[in-house]
TrEMBL record:
This is Major facilitator superfamily (MFS) profile domain-containing protein. It is found in: Membrane. One of its GO terms (molecular function) is transmembrane transporter activity. Gene3D superfamilies: MFS general substrate transporter like domains. One of its GO terms (cellular component) is membrane. Its main location: membrane. InterPro entries: MFS, MFS_dom, MFS_trans_sf. The chain crosses the membrane at residues 44-64, 84-100, 112-131, 137-161, 173-194, 206-229, 281-306, 318-338, 345-366, 372-392, 404-425, 437-458.
Length: 484
């Protein structure tokens, strides 16, 4: 096939970039039919195992909410002061601090070894949490959980974005994330069944929730050692790679046609500092933080809000699952439309509006049915915005080193969103948590302001690129333009 560079500055009237891979015009010497089959093969080997691991990650970090209403609150005296909020909060401190170092290690050690190892570690911690007797040990375990889980999500985003071109990536990120959400959506149903093991071997039902779900994590982590796909330039180091050397060269060539960064570049602390001087990375991070607040707030407090509506413990756990299942269908449909239209910001705006409307209904509607419907809207908006924001950043940066730093910073600020959610949903506001719901809505208004500013900036830079009046190339490449 031809390795000739092609111009990928095919901007549409909205300022978005049309990648040649997704255009209808075939480039000479490129077998697009074979490339399509190759991409499908990558999908099968890459997305399901990462989704399975992230689903158990989400289960292990949020199952405390199901354990709490199944008896942990009283057994560990978490209802004293702000103990429950402290236990939630302490997860996010190491989660934020260790994401960037983890991405550096990931690149050096390899995806299968590193991601499989940290999953095994946090699964073991989750099992151990099923045997604790003191709330302070719970806090320590949550710190360890945050430490080990820190590297998985940004590492997965970095890995996925290294395999695909820009207008394929949101469907893949959505598939990875939403499949995890779909599986995680059944967590409450699983917890409902596990809590009925109350008394077996002398252990309370909430302890069985943690133990069994931790065992599931360990099983998936052991499988990951043999299944996870490494970076394109590292894949041939595996004993039985699923792609040939020729296949990998095709993948690298299509990435170079799209954004010219298939080759890894050095990642040192001075380069990290250089990338962090780009204000846009901080804007992407703030947007992701705002999206994480409703995600974490609803994950941790939805069972308590539902129980406050008068539902039983069992029914609260069952009703917690349904909004996530519906959200998967909504968010994946929007992801398909986003890749089809090659737009990102308008779909993020839609997600923000769904959250604002949904949280308003949940906070102030008099009917429990209406309040529950508001949760459906809020969850759909939150689950749409997570993969869309990941794609928004991924589409607008270049080089492997910047991708590594950007994904770690962005997801790290998601941890700050988790800290914020843990503190604004205060125990004294239970069970309606109106202050927390208003804080969640406030974050969405911040996102709308940031998106408006960035859209104006991106359109201006794309126009200057088209007119040839840029003072320096966008992202250091003469043919790169921003995705709106």
């Amino acid at each position: 096939m031809s390795n000739e560079k092609v111009n990928y500055d095919h901007s549409d009237s909205m300022g978005a970039v049309t990648s040649p891979q997704t255009s209808s015009v075939e480039e000479p010497g490129i077998d697009l039919v074979y490339e399509k089959k190759l991409v499908r093969r990558i999908d099968i080997h890459l997305i399901p195992i990462l989704a399975a691991l992230y689903s158990v990650s989400m289960i292990d970090r949020t199952n405390i909410s199901n354990a709490v209403i199944a008896g942990m609150m009283s057994d560990l005296k978490l209802n004293v002061g702000d103990r429950f909020s402290i236990a939630l909060l302490m997860f996010f401190i190491p989660y934020f601090l260790f994401e960037l170092p983890s991405n550096i290690i990931l690149r050096r050690v390899g995806a299968a070894v590193w991601l499989g190892s940290i999953a095994l570690a946090w699964g073991s911690v989750t099992i151990g949490m099923g045997f604790i007797k003191d709330w302070r040990i719970l806090v320590f375990c949550r710190v360890l959980l945050g430490l080990f889980e820190a590297g998985f999500f940004p590492g997965s985003i970095y890995l996925i974005s290294s395999w695909y071109v820009r207008y394929e990536v949101q469907k893949r990120l959505a598939g990875f994330y939403l499949l995890s959400v779909f599986i995680g959506g059944f967590t409450s149903l699983l917890s409902y069944g596990l809590m009925h093991m109350n008394g077996i071997q002398g252990l309370a039902g909430w302890r069985w929730i943690l133990i069994i779900e931790g065992v599931l994590t360990v099983i998936v982590a052991l499988l990951a050692y043999f299944v996870i796909v490494d970076f394109p330039d590292k894949l041939l180091q595996r004993r039985k790679p699923f792609l040939t050397e020729s296949d990998i060269e095709i993948i690298k060539a299509r990435i170079d046609r799209d954004r010219d960064d298939s080759q890894s570049d050095p990642l040192t602390w001075s380069i990290v500092g250089h990338h962090l001087s780009d204000w846009k990375l901080w804007a992407y991070a703030l947007l992701f933080m705002s999206a994480a607040v409703p995600g974490y707030g609803l994950a941790y407090f939805m069972p308590i809000i539902l129980k406050g509506m008068g539902y039983s413990t069992s029914m609260s756990q069952i009703l917690t699952s349904l909004p996530y299942i519906a959200a998967v269908a909504v968010a994946f449909s929007l992801a398909w439309c986003a890749d089809k239209t090659r737009l990102r910001a308008p779909f993020i705006v839609l997600g923000c509006l769904l959250i604002i409307i949904g949280m308003s209904i949940t906070a102030y509607a008099s009917s429990n049915g209406a309040r529950y419907f508001g949760i459906f809207l809020g969850v759909a908006g939150a689950q749409n915005n997570i993969p869309t924001l990941l794609a928004y950043q991924s589409n607008n940066i270049r080089t492997n080193s910047k991708r590594s730093v950007g994904s770690a910073l962005q997801v790290g600020f998601g941890a700050i969103g988790g800290v914020f959610a843990s503190t604004v949903y205060r125990q004294k506001d239970s069970p309606k948590y109106r202050n927390g719901l208003w804080a969640t809505m406030g974050c969405q208004f911040l996102s709308l302001v940031l998106l408006a500013f960035m859209t104006v900036y991106f359109k201006r830079k794309n126009r200057q690129h088209k007119e040839g009046t840029l003072d320096k190339p966008i992202e250091g490449h003469p043919e790169f333009t921003y995705t709106i």
